[in-house]
Amino acid sequence: VQMVESGGGLAQSGGSLRLSCAASGFRFRDYPMAWFRQAPGKEREFVAKVNWYGGLTNYAASVKGRFTISRDNANNTLYLQMNKLKPEDTALYSCAKGKTANFNTVEYDYSGRGIQVTVSS
């Protein structure tokens, strides 16, 4: 299993970034996927998740209405569109694979190494 994030970098407050996660080594379309983030000195936190076909999503309250999670099963890629970015969104963002096909699961068994997002004020 391998997941590689891309698209991070530096953005200004109010700006946008789009993260991608290229997945391989498993049947991507069979599993829910999620994004997590970890800021320096803080616990890893859930950002968003999507079910196997992209029809169901769930977001952390802190990003709801600003971030959109989506997936392209034909190309084994997960996305996170981040709009109206705030300095508090600064963190290392990583994608994660659901452990089972159940969308409601809170367990994830593989994660990418992550990519840095920095939002300046």
How do you describe this structure in short?
The chain is mainly β and 121 residues long. It has no helices and eleven strands.
Structural features, described:
- With 121 residues, the protein is mostly beta strands.
- 0% of the residues lie in helices and 51% in strands.
- It has no helices and eleven strands.
- Strands 2, 4, 5, 6, 9, 10 and 11 form a seven-stranded mixed sheet that branches.
- Strand 5 and strand 6 form a beta hairpin.
- It is globular.
- The N and C termini lie far apart (37 Å).
- The mean pLDDT is 96.
Q: What portion of the residues fall into strands of 2 or more residues?
A: over 45%
As residue ranges, the low-confidence spans are none
Structural class: mainly beta
Helix amount: under 10%
Mean pLDDT: 96
**Main sheet record:** 7 strands, mixed
Cα Rg = 13 Å
* Helical segment count: 0
Number of strands: 11
Euclidean distance between termini CA atoms: 37 Å
Summary keywords:
121 residues; mainly beta; seven-stranded mixed beta sheet
Write the layout of secondary structure elements.
Elements: E1 2-6, E2 9-12, E3 17-24, E4 33-38, E5 45-50, E6 57-59, E7 67-72, E8 77-82, E9 91-98, E10 108-111, E11 115-120
Parallel strand pairs: 2-11
Antiparallel strand pairs: 1-3, 3-8, 4-5, 4-9, 5-6, 7-8, 9-10, 9-11
